Amino acid sequence: MKKLFYLFLGLAISLSLAACNTTPSGTDVSNTDTAGTVSSSTNTDTDQITSSDTDTGCAHIYTEATCYEAKVCTLCGEVAGDALGHAWQEATCTEAKTCSRCGETTGKALGHDWKEATCFTMKKCNRCDETTGDRPEGHTWSEATCTEAKKCTVCGTTFGTALGHDWKEATCTEAKKCTVCGVTSGEALGHKWKDATCTDPKECLECEAVSGTALGHTFKTPEGEPLDACAVCGEDADS
Q1: HSE-CB of 47 using CA atoms within 13 angstroms
Q2: Half-sphere CA count of 200, side-chain side, radius 13 A
Q3: 160 near 124, Cβ under 8 Å?
Q4: pTM of the entire predicted model
């Protein structure tokens, strides 16, 4: 009876030892550390990265790296890799240089580089093609003059030819003059005088202008003696 008891006792111990050395179903023995701890290689948190460190015994759960910080284990504080650094998008006319990863900005927006409007195109940015102002309506013409052709007051384009002067001929007292714009050319002709006579003052043969007074008759000699007729024109003294 005593031998039978020891036989059953030995069998129970053997079964217990066998059970302790059996790996549970579905467990990855490759991730079992020296303390017998099993760490999973997956994590349902998409913002964390997990891994196993057999030296420290920590099943690392890493935060995502940022522009300024490398990934860090939330359990033990271990740092892995480097900070990502900024991923800059170049500045535009309206926005400063911006990191596409974290949204940080630096500097200022470039501002528009405007090309002035013309008679047929709107004011437009050379950099981004944005337009501003009213839609063009074509040329705005100023009328032709004696010396200039019809001209657009906006862009300076000309059309046709100058009208040319409409001259009024020069006179004794005025230079040649345009009847449209008033410009003059040359000089006045000056009078062509007919000498004064005993009875008429000096007179212009062109315009009939008079100057001075008539000379008057000469009915005496230089010595003062009376004459029967004018010494200049011959008119009778008694007439």
Answers
A1: 3
A2: 10
A3: no
A4: 0.42
Give the span between the Cα atoms of 103 and 88, in whole angstroms: 9
Find the distance separating the first CA and the last CA of the chain, reported in whole Å.
206
User: What is the Cα–Cα distance from 160 to 140, expressed in whole angstroms?
Assistant: 15
Q: What residues does each domain of the chain span?
A: 43-85, 93-137, 191-239
How far lies 97's CA from each of 103, 128, 129, 155, in Å? 10, 15, 19, 37
pLDDT digits (tens, 9 = 90+) for 21-68: 333 333 333 333 333 333 333 333 334 445 555 566 799 999 999 999
Is residue 198 within 8 A of residue 232, CB to CB? The reply is: yes
CA distance 233 to 212: 19
